[in-house]
């Protein structure tokens, strides 16, 4: 336990910000005025169709549709935000984005098309970035085109997918094809686009290179990212009416962090900025808000991590964290601090949302290093992956990310082997915990605890298992998660039921205080996952009660605490809402 927690243990322990800066543009881009009702009502209808399709019983997604694509040009220090009338057009710039799709929604990138803000077809190039291994459909596609925006300017384009619309029948001037008088719709409105020429299909370009850091960022609505499930379950921040304190608190914590988040550097022992996967946490923040500034921030963190924290072999086939010893080889088990600093989820996020080949290289190289190291990790004097739950968790996240980009049978066998070990580990005890010697993990935290467990480390392992299940459909995950949730509720809560015991099963310290209630935000996703797999609403009731305490006790003054809250609770909100039926979702969102 770090010094901050030791000091905190003895103690018992602005309205919601406008988090979605791009929302007014996105939700009104189809010629409709913004709705005045609940935030969810502002979602563009065709995007809502995708979201609701996955909110019920996960039927096949729509075969065709479209989504608004927001373009935001970087602002120049002295440039006006918009072009003055009569000003010369700026030069065109290359624009690219990773466009994610839900399982089954898209199988051929040539079924993508693009229109500009006036509805005019735009040439588009595309290539697949990754597929969903279970059905081979496209998980994310790299799309690239050219656009001209002045510094600080914004535009709404439309990305269409699926079968092209049928050409409209010719009609006399002033009438639509059905014979009714044409309305004077503004340029680019749905009424005008209905009769526009069919946009050409995207050109499949396997050599297409991304431009993720170009002068124009292209982002999709947060509801689309949520429906795609590209980086796990999500709930758009604007739709979180149940926990507004989390939304304002997580933003305020990042904005006011002293010293600033990006002032932290690399550390193999003390506080460091990427603990709990900073790139993943920041991409979770972006996906829930969908704005260019948060995209830029997450992207910068992913690049920083690769530049400062990874060491590649000369042939760049293997990569380990710089905290690994210089003489490390796959024959030597990776150290615990190296496992927890290998950020498979964050690097996968960066690749799926930008197409950057450097991100893919990092995923493949760290994954291959771990794959080759498995024998040493599990076959030596002790099984390193079972020393603590998080050792197994980080290893499974790394291998799952590797398999997500390279779904070969041998990689499936490797990650399934870790799942086999996790299942067997839990079954060896009767509690539902992944029981282990908690004194061995950290003697300063417990003098004796041969059959203990760690709730917060268990939450990391459940997160890894859910990533694995999304790729493989392994039915065993359901029972493992349900048993872990039952253990957390029945045996790992403090006696006041406001928090989780920092350690469970320590014979010399019961850890029966709620001074670590801020960790609730990292742990309650286990209940969300249990609900997603069992559809038992009591798990949400348990999770919400503990989440209320966690939000109240948030401590996000350092990157470590900020990352653990953002990476964990964002997923809980996704489980809680996106996988519920419409009626249940309405109840939960309202907090009833």
Distance between the termini: 37 Å
Number of helical segments? 21
What structural class do the secondary elements suggest?
Answer: alpha+beta
Q: How many strands, what sense, and barrel or not for the largest sheet?
A: 4 strands, antiparallel
* Overall pLDDT confidence: 85
Give the strand tally: 10
Please specify the SSE layout and strand pairing:
Elements: H1 3-8, H2 23-27, H3 45-55, E1 65-73, E2 93-100, E3 112-115, E4 125-131, E5 138-147, E6 154-161, H4 190-193, E7 203-204, E8 216-219, H5 222-228, H6 244-256, H7 278-289, H8 292-309, E9 310-312, E10 319-321, H9 336-339, H10 344-354, H11 357-379, H12 389-405, H13 409-427, H14 438-441, H15 455-472, H16 476-490, H17 520-523, H18 525-534, H19 538-552, H20 559-578, H21 582-590
Keyword list:
592 residues; alpha+beta; 4-stranded antiparallel β-sheet; 4-stranded mixed β-sheet; globular; disordered C terminus
